[in-house]
Amino acid sequence: MGLIVVSDEFGACAGVDVGGTFTDVVVHGPGHRPKAVKVPTTPANPAEGVQRGVEVSLPGGAPRLLPHGSTTATNAVLERKVARTAFVTTAGFTDVLQIARQNRPALYDLSVTKPEPLIPRDMVVTVEERMGPDGEPVIALTDAEIERAVAAVRELEPESIAVSLLFAYACDDHERRLCSALAELGVPITRSSALLPEFREFERASTCVLNAAIEPVMHRYLSNLASRLPEPTITVMTSSGGTAGVDFAATSPVHTLLSGPAAGVVAAGAVARSAGFADAIAFDMGGTSTDVCLIRDGHPEVSTASEIAGLPFRTPAVGIHTVGAGGGSIAWVDAGGALRVGPRSAGADPGPACYGSGGQEPTVTDAHCALGHLDPARELGGGLRLDADAARRALDGLPESAAGVLAVVRATMARALRKVSTERGVDPAGLALVAYGGAGPLHATALARELGCPAVVVPPAPGVLSALGLLLAPPRFEASRTVLADAGDDLSQTWAELAEEAHAELEKQGVATDIALSKVADMRYAGQSHELRIDVVDETGAAELLHAAHREAYGYEIRDERVEVVTLRVVARGEPVLAAPPGNWDQGSPESKPDREIGIGDRTARARVVPRAGLRPGDEITGPALVEQPDTTTLLGDGEVAVVDEAENLVVRLA
User: Fold this and answer.
1) pTM for the complete prediction?
2) Which residues of 274-309 are buried (b: 16+ CB within 10 A; e: fewer)?
3) How much is the pLDDT for 118?
């Protein structure tokens, strides 16, 4: 991910984002031009790379504020390197995590298997109690039962505990009493009614277990980071597109499972607005994966139903779709002799063959290097120089050329882009493609043509846009409560309580700016098993809001059906460090370079090499061309014209 630093003589504001290959650094402040810097990621200890990025960005100094994105929680789940966790639930629900939902992950795949829960069955403790859906106890929780449960959990010797009892969202008395007694064990406890006071017992239990399993991991990482960087106030990017205090992130790390890519789509929305596009697709191609997200009216869409490695969680998250296609994705031949690319990646260590760090397998970056898209004579992030001969040697064993490798990986990315556009009924003809990440601009125009997007927007510093997003993201907290009420019911008291909770949480996290509150409701027609997330301005017009939202999503409405308000939400937002993407970036010296032969598809062409540092608003570049800058390279095909707009974006309008 990356690091952004906003500095002046009175102090610095820094945001951090750690990627699979590089830790990116952006320096900006009054009186200083924004500057992008890259340092290699340190997978064994990401905090080390963050510290190195700060030191390179501010030699001899320290930031005062450090909002950062982290993949610590994500990697812990993906690699299953989580804490030994006990799960406490209502008697009769021992297998709630194993049974899950009955829908199949792949309807026609007869060999598909569901992922195993993070917690094995022998780490589950059940409690004789039962709360009813109305919040009234059906089976009382006795003191003797609490003592028995605590003793059973103690025998398991857990490092963390998850407590999720049936209907605890309606009344949390049983969970509170049980957690109070479990506190004597001296390990972190996640209480579902505090983390997620919403219905659906499986999703609530899954979210609770995920949080408990990664809490010790996240706590260790943040403690290590704080010890390395004791001076700044550290905040953490959450999956929802906002930042949160370090204490909140340490105790509720499930909110950070999509921390890394969330910052990028926040910035992509701001970039799209600056280029005059309200609707867009964020396209982030990094070293190990590609993240795409639909942007409407300048903001990424937020969902409350996400999953990671097949495990669902219900915290607010931007609607990102990820595929294993990045610059480090390895090209290989399957059993049928077909060329495949990814999802396995060379990562930062050893990296692609052209890095000269011991990598032997061919990657997407090697293909670009062999085709001349990347200049071996130019120093890349972290002082890296490429070895084109090593790239060609690695590619020699494949049945296809380097161009074939790019065609295969682009097919994977095109499917991802369709997933968030055409498969959701959104015509790409009305969406600009905002390309960023270290590799995104190399593929942007080819993918936009394939999808039918009218334009490509490449921001001034695309290789570190996720880092910039950390300064554009506001402090954010969402308070929620399941109510299962009719649209005409008076819910003003619940709205007021949620508003107070959301406002108080941001104040607790140290937000000193003005705090804005907005209302959201999950609604559905009676008999439906899914809800639509709808912004609420007038509490009295809930039914009309659902009719309009349902018509937009599905093409029809059911006016004679009863409308249910399922869950109320109040979103509190503070003010971000930056209100808009900065301009006047430091792109290095505008050294003129000779044209060079490059491969485009199955042919070669002589391309102009244009340093982005020499471009000014109004300048035009006609392809074939390569626009080079410290953090990425933009590839323009034959006849494609890029124009620098007033916000210093490269905008390519496609016929």
Assistant:
1) 0.88
2) bbebebbbbbbbbbbbbbbbbbeebbbbbbbbbbbe
3) 92
